[in-house]
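Practice problem 4.
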């Protein structure tokens, strides 16, 4: 009876060792399969290099597209410098005047030489130009333009701090971007929510 019990114990021990050996063999086979699959993958450095090259190509494509849009925008608004002269023979050159939409954009000292209608028109052209160019270049300006009639390009433009948590946002008062024919007349800034210069509307306005 004792010999039978001993034989059963040996048999159970052999079965346990066999099961453990099978488990180890299966684990080893799985590791070999994983290693072989890893060998088939490209090196990580090559993958990163390829992704970097693709990002570089995409960035260059976007830059060229934006450059083309800006060039077309400059041509549409006819932003050119007229007059002036280059430096010749050691003599300093003279800067000309810039025009936007065919109208001279005067420097601050020359504003009084032009009628208010001229100044208002060229400022309006400049507002549209800046709105579109910042949209094409994905630039957010710290100040926003609103219109007195709460519609883009309708009424008089006003400028005020844009929405945000930056330090400049505390200056919420709006200031006029236009001149009046009567210097003594005053106008109040739009009290309601400003009509923001949305890029889509700006694009429609120059078609």
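Answer key:
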């Amino acid at each position: 009876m004792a010999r039978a019990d001993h034989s059963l114990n040996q048999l159970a021990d052999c079965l346990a060792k066999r099961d453990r050996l099978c488990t180890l063999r299966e684990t080893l086979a799985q590791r070999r399969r994983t290693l072989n699959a890893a060998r088939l993958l490209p090196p990580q450095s090559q993958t990163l290099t390829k992704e970097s090259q693709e990002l570089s190509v995409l960035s260059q494509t976007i830059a060229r597209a934006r450059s083309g849009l800006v060039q077309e925008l400059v041509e549409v608004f006819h932003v050119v410098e007229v007059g002036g002269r280059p430096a010749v023979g050691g003599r300093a050159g003279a800067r000309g005047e810039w025009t936007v939409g065919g109208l001279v954009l005067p420097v601050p000292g020359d504003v009084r030489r032009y009628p208010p209608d001229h100044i208002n028109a060229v400022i309006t052209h400049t507002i549209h130009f800046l709105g579109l160019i910042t949209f094409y270049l994905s630039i957010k300006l710290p100040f926003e333009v609103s219109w007195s009639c709460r519609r883009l390009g309708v009424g008089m433009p006003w400028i005020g701090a844009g929405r945000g948590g930056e330090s400049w946002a505390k200056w919420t008062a709006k200031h006029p971007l236009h001149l009046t024919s009567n210097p003594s007349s005053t106008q109040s800034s739009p009290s309601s929510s400003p009509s923001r210069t949305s890029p889509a509307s700006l694009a429609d306005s120059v078609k």
